[in-house]
């Protein structure tokens, strides 16, 4: 609650600064001291609740998990191919190597799908939690604030929804890829 009061006070200070600014004749422009403006913006950022800073961390964490999942999948496929090539010495070894390579690739695909699905689930839960927190913050702290802040929350919420939809789409594609591979 103290952070909210501080943010509101800083917004009032920003509004006073804008109202007291010198206007440029014959234009709709004003002259401001950039130091004053940047100082207030810096103070607003420092006073924002930790939940807003966690949103960036969640997005970065999602990207890291997806990147690690892709890297692990690619590594497993490369290792399976290397192992299959190594075992190609005779017909019997080739048959065994081919079967083992298929098993390894299938296991790698299953493991990769599992990691993807877990990642998608984790990211979706985190995004959903952030979406809930953003809704709570909107209701609790910013219910009567300026219209521009409401637009900001709506944009963040839309982005979270789009990210969730993207995760769900990737999960759906992953599921369909496995179904297509099983039918081959």
What would you report as the Rg, rounded to the nearest angstrom? Answer: 27 Å
How would you characterize the largest beta sheet?
2 strands, antiparallel
Indicate the overall shape. elongated
**Strand line-up of the largest beta sheet:** 1-2
Number of E-state strands: 2
Strand coverage percent: under 5%
Task: Write a structural description.
The protein has 184 residues and is mostly helical. It has helices at residues 2-19, 34-47, 50-86, 91-140, 147-183; strands spanning 22-23, 30-31. Strand 1 (22-23) and strand 2 form a beta hairpin. It is elongated.
Relevant terms:
184 residues; mainly alpha; 2 strands; 2% strand
In short:
It is built from five helices and two strands, in the order αββαααα. The chain has helices spanning 2-19, 34-47, 50-86, 91-140, 147-183, and strands spanning 22-23, 30-31.
List the helices and strands and how they pair.
Elements: H1 2-19, E1 22-23, E2 30-31, H2 34-47, H3 50-86, H4 91-140, H5 147-183
Antiparallel strand pairs: 1-2
Helix pairs in contact: 1-2, 3-4, 4-5
């Amino acid at each position: 609650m103290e952070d909210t009061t501080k943010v509101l006070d800083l917004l009032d200070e920003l509004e006073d600064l804008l109202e007291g600014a010198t206007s440029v004749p014959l234009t709709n422009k004003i002259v401001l001291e950039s130091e004053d403006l940047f100082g207030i913006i810096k103070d607003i950022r420092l006073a924002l609740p930790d939940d807003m800073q966690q949103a960036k961390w969640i997005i970065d964490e999602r990207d890291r998990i997806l990147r690690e999942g892709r890297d692990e999948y690619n590594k497993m496929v490369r290792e399976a191919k290397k192992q299959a090539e190594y075992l190609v010495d005779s017909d019997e070894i080739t048959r065994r190597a081919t079967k083992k390579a298929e098993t390894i690739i299938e296991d790698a695909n299953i493991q990769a799908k599992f990691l993807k699905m877990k990642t998608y689930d984790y990211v979706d839960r985190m995004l959903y939690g952030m979406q809930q927190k953003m809704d709570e913050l909107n209701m609790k702290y910013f219910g009567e604030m300026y219209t521009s802040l409401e637009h900001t929350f709506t944009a963040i919420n839309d982005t979270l929804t789009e990210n969730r939809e993207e995760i769900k789409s990737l999960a759906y594609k992953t599921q369909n890829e496995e179904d297509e591979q099983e039918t081959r």
